[in-house]
């Protein structure tokens, strides 16, 4: 594969984990990471970064999705236990999920047998927060803070010989000189692929100074409190097909009110930032190969996008799967040069 050129499109968590996995598996490939936004300009940087897929999160099949989740967990867990854990922003975090309506809400088939601790909350724990909490679970998971992970991964990619190109891409023909493209454009894939199944789910968060909060909490109506190394994230909302990237003061007030109701000690916590992001939602995450015939050329593309609200969670797993598709593409001899 020496001298073969691969373009990884996108520098969010999906593009970076894919580029690193490709480099690890095929050290002699010439890989270029192409994107118009990096680090704190991406949607990935808005995420609190908790490892927690929804039960509804789905890729090609349930079994393959479970494998993605497992592969991701072991990737982050390995990092968490390595000397790089602090630089990469990966830590362990424990907390509660409460519901006043249904026991199913506090269960998670992907996590129950994967995490080191996943159990029902005790009666005493259900009374930790104000509210009529009837069901609860307590678990220990991982947190990957993208303000650290993305620059760390980008540096690692460059140190291993990867190239970076800052550019807006309007069509695959703009990058047709690569032997294979791996499309990790997140919401950008909607226009690039005319994929109207990909829709934004808008989210807004508040970052506050509350260093006494060491435990995460999830509750009804998308309410969550997640402690990070610099600030605590308060969320949230899920607005389907909204493209609004501005901070909405009504959303902010509602998020603040719900979080303070759950944890009254947050009442006077100083607000340090507000952020909005568009989760790239697709009913099934798209990780598949496409040979695009433009008439004049055949462009080999491996898609890896549509992770919705779970891109930090699932990225290393879908990256591994995308690289497996790359290997299959090579073995099948579908390409002229590879
Ligand atoms: C409020 C909020 C909280 C969240 N919390 C969590 C969480 O706790 N855990 C979790 O797992 N997930 C969470 N998520 C979801 C997570 O942020 C996303 O799933 C993830 O960031 C998607 O990553 P991505 O790499 O696909 O996209 P992005 O981070 O958006 O990266 C896309 C990349 O493609 C580039 N690009 C796109 N189009 C073009 C173009 N035309 N030309 C050039 N470059 C282009 C961009 O510049 C960028 O580099 C949250 C999301 C939000 C909004």
UniProtKB/TrEMBL annotation:
Residues 6-324 form the FAD dependent oxidoreductase domain. The keyword Flavoprotein applies. FAD binds at residues 43-44, 308-313. Transmembrane segments: none annotated. Its cofactor is FAD. GO terms for biological process: D-amino acid catabolic process. This is FAD dependent oxidoreductase domain-containing protein.
């Amino acid at each position: 594969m020496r001298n073969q050129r691969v373009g990884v499109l996108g520098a969010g968590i999906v593009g970076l984990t894919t580029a690193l996995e490709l480099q690890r598996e095929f050290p002699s490939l010439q890989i270029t990471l192409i994107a118009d936004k990096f680090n704190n300009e991406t949607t990935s940087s808005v995420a609190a970064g908790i490892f927690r897929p929804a039960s509804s999160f789905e890729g090609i099949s349930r079994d393959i999705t479970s494998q993605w989740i497992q592969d991701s967990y072991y990737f982050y867990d390995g990092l968490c236990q390595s000397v790089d854990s602090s630089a990469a922003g990966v830590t362990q975090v424990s907390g509660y999920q409460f519901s006043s309506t249904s026991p199913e809400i506090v269960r998670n088939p992907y996590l129950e047998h994967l995490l080191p601790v996943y159990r029902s909350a005790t009666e005493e724990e259900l009374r930790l927060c104000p509210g009529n909490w009837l069901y609860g679970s307590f678990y220990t998971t991982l947190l990957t803070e993208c303000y650290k992970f993305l620059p760390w991964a980008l540096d690692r990619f460059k140190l291993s010989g990867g190239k970076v190109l800052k550019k807006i891409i309007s069509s695959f023909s703009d990058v047709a000189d690569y032997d294979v493209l791996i499309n990790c454009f997140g919401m950008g894939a909607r226009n690039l692929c005319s994929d109207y199944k990909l829709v934004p789910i808008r989210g807004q968060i508040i970052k506050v100074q509350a260093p006494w909060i060491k435990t995460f909490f999830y509750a009804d109506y998308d309410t969550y409190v997640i402690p990070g190394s610099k600030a605590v994230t308060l969320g949230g909302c899920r607005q389907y097909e909204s493209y609004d990237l501005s901070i909405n003061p009504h959303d902010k007030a509602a998020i603040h009110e719900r979080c303070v109701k759950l944890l009254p000690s947050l009442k006077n916590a100083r607000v340090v930032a507000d952020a909005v992001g568009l989760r790239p939602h697709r009913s099934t995450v798209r990780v598949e190969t496409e040979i695009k015939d433009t008439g004049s050329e055949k462009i080999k593309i491996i898609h890896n996008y549509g992770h919705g609200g779970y891109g930090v969670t699932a990225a290393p797993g879908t990256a591994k799967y995308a690289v497996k598709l790359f290997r299959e593409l090579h073995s099948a001899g579908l390409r002229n040069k590879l």
